Amino acid sequence: MKNARKERNPVVIVRPLDPAPTPLEGLRGLSELAFPFLLHSAQLGPQGRYSFAGADPFLQFVSHGTQIEVWRGAQRQRFEADPFVALRELMHTYPMASAVETPFAAGAVGFFSYDLARVIEDLPQETQDPHPFPDIHLGFYDAVVTWDAQEGRALITSSGLPLRGRAGQEHAAQRASWLEAQLRRPRGSIPHSATPTEMTSNFSREEYVAGVEEVKRLIGAGDLFQVNLSQRFTVRPRPDGLELFERLTRVNPAPFAAYLEGPDGSQVLSASPELFVRVRGDEVLTTPIKGTRPRGDSPESDLAQAQELLNSEKDLAELVMIVDLLRNDLGRVAQFGSVTVGALPTLSSHPTVHHLHADIRARIAPHLDRFDLLRAAFPGGSITGAPKVRAMEVIEHLEPCRRGVYTGAIGALGFDGGVDLNIAIRTCVAAGDTLTFSVGGGIVADSDPASEYEETLHKGRGLAKALGIHDF
User: Fold this and answer.
1) HSE (CB half, 13 Å, CA atoms) of 252?
2) N or C: fewer beta carbons within 10 Å in the chain?
3) Which pLDDT does position 69 carry in this prediction?
4) Is the pLDDT of residue 324 over 80?
C-alpha cells in the first residue's frame, strides 16, 4: 500500500530560482510556448502575495455546454457530460501531495465563462456572442514557477505528471530544468502594436440609461432587488495582448491579474481587484466588491471620495445584499454554522478607484468538495444581482450579447485540492481582429441612471488608458 500511495501521489520537486526574472519577464520568456499563463499579484497587499506562471500543458479541458473535449497533445477525446462532473473525475486522476512552499505547485489554469451558468440554471436563450468562447478552458500544468513577493523569492515546482513512480520523478526533474531554461531565455522586446483607432459600445448612453430604468421598474414591481448591468466595448485594430497586459499592470495593478492564451490565438488579460473564491483544504474565502468611487486628484479629494463611499447608505445596502446572497450560496455546501462575515464594510483602494468589500468564510461539508462549491457559487453574486437566477434572466433580456469570459472566473485549481479564482472584471479578450472589454454596475431601487452610466466609465478608464484611449 505504501508503494501504491507513492504511485498515486507524486512528491513535488521544489527548486529555488535565484536570480529570478520578474513575473512579467518570466511571462515574456514563456510567451512563444504553447498556452503560457501568468496569474499575477500586481498590487501587493493582504490578498496579493503570490504570482504563478507556466506553459506547455500536458492536457487541455474544454467545454461548450455539456459537450466536452479533452486534448492530450494532438489527440482529442469528445464526449457529453456535466462539465463539473467531468472535470472532477479528470482531476481526480492526477492527485498530488501539497507543496508547503507554495499554494499552487501544479494544476489546472484557465477560465470559466459567465455563460457556464446555463449549465447550472435554466436560463433563456435570447442573445448570442459574435466571438463565442468555451464555457471552460483549462490547461493542466505539471510544472509552475511561483514568485513570493512577501518573502522576495521565486521557486520552481514540478510534479512529473502525468507520469508516476520512478518515471514521474525523472520527468519532474527534467521538466523543472526545462522550465528554468525557458524562464532564463534572452527576452527580446515586444513589438509595439498599433493604438486602437476605433471603439464602439453595444449600448449607447441613452440605451444604457433606458436599461437602468427598466431594471428599476422591475425592482419596483417586486421582481428582484438588484441587477448588474454591463456594456461591452469593442476596439480595432486588435492590439497585442501581451504588450497590453504589461501596460495594464503598470497603469492599473491589481491583486488578481491574469494573462492567458486561449483557443485560436486568443488572449485573455485581466486586472481584476476581486477574489471569487479561494480554497485551502476545506476552508473557503470569497470577497465580494460593491460600491465604486474614482480616486481623487489630490490627497484631500481622494480622502473625501473614500469617505463618501464609506458613508454611502446605497453602496452599503448593495454590499449587504450581495453578502447575504453569497452567504446563502456558500451555505448550500458549507458545514453547518461555519459561514462567517468579517468587518462590513472594508475599504479597498486601487490605482483608479475605491471599492467596498467584505470577507466571507466557510468550511466545505465533509461529503462535498470544491466542484460542489463552484456549482453552488458560480457565477459570483456581485456581478449578477439578487435573487441571482432572476437577475441573470434580466441580464439575458437587456444586454445585447452574451458576456463570455467577462464576469466569469480566471485562475487555478491545484492538483492538491486548492482553488484560486478571480471575478473576471477589468478583463479584455483579444480574438480575431478585435479586442473587447466590458464594464458594469449594480442597479438598485434608488439608482440614478445617469450616475450608473458614469460609474461604468470610471471602471473602464484604467483599461482605456492602457489602450492609449485618453478621452474615454
Assistant:
1) 29
2) N
3) 98
4) yes
Place of cell 469570459: 405
Tell me if the pTM is above 0.90.
yes
Total Cβ atoms within 10 A of residue 333: 22
Give, in order, the Cα–Cα distances in Å from 7 to each of 1, 72, 159, 161, 315: 10, 21, 12, 11, 53
Q: Which helix (H) or strand (E) holds 228?
A: strand 226-236
Cell numbers at residue 457, please?
Answer: 466609465
CB 211, CB 398: distance < 8 Å: yes
261 is catalytic: no
How far apart, in whole angstroms, are the C-alpha atoms of residue 259 and residue 268? 6
Q: Which helix (H) or strand (E) holds 70?
A: strand 67-72
Confidence of residue 290 (pLDDT cuts 50, 70, 90): confident
Active site residue 274: yes
Residue 383 contacts residue 423 (beta carbons within 8 Å) = yes
Domain boundaries, the chain: 2-466
Check: CB of residue 389 under 8 Å from CB of residue 329: no
Catalytic residue from among 216, 246, 261, 290: 290
What pLDDT, on a 0 to 100 scale, did the predictor assign at position 460? Answer: 83
**Environment class of 223 (CB within 10 Å of its CB; exposed 0-12, middle 13-18, buried 19+):** middle
Q: Could you give the 3-state DSSP secondary structure of residue 157?
A: strand
Could you tell me if residue 81 is left (phi over 0), alpha (psi between -120 and 50 degrees) or otherwise beta?
Answer: beta
- Spatial CA neighbour of 55 closest among 113, 135, 140, 137: 140
pLDDT digits (tens, 9 = 90+) for 204-223: 999 999 999 999 999 999 99
Is the domain defined by 2-466 classed in CATH 3.60.120.10? yes
348, 373, 351: which is closest to 362 by C-alpha?
373
Cα 56 from Cα 72, distance rounded (Å):
11
Question: Where do we find the cell 486586472?
Answer: 271
Cα torsion 154, 245, 371, 65: sign: negative
Calpha distance 316→442 (Å, rounded)? 12
Taking only the tens place, the pLDDT of each residue in 395-429 is 999 999 999 999 999 999 999 999 999 999 999 99
Tell me which residue has cell 513589438: 191
